[in-house]
Design brief:
- The protein has helices at about 1-25, 25-30, 35-45, 60-80; strands spanning about 55, 60.
- Strands 1-2 form a two-stranded antiparallel sheet.
- It is mostly helical.
- The protein contains 4 helices and 2 strands.
- Strand 1 and strand 2 (about 60) form a beta hairpin.
- About 75% of the residues lie in helices and about 5% in strands.
- Helix 1 (about 1-25) crosses helix 3 (about 35-45) and helix 1 (about 1-25) runs antiparallel to helix 4.
- The relative contact order is 0.17.
Length: about 80
């Protein structure tokens, strides 16, 4: 039961990261209350990957790597369950 909850929680967090990525296309959203909440939720995890050179051609792939890492964690949870 706990593993299923963690699996679903990771899925929700992945969507938060995706929304955070889309917020870069609309900077006004970042200044809203919802944008600040999404940024506060996503930045601690993304800061783990900030030191890696993941910017190519002006595009930052940090969020992609973060989502891949979360997917790996989800797969481990499925193997445990």
């Amino acid at each position: 039961m706990l593993l299923i909850f963690l699996y679903k929680l990771i899925t929700v967090y992945e969507w938060i990261l995706i929304i955070y990525a889309f917020m870069s296309w609309a900077p006004d959203i970042r200044n809203s209350q919802v944008g600040r909440i999404i940024e506060k939720l996503s930045r601690p995890f993304l800061s783990i990957f900030d030191r890696l050179p993941l910017q190519f051609g002006g595009i930052d792939f940090t969020i992609v790597l973060a989502i891949v890492a979360l997917n790996a964690i989800q797969r481990l949870l499925l193997m445990i369950a």
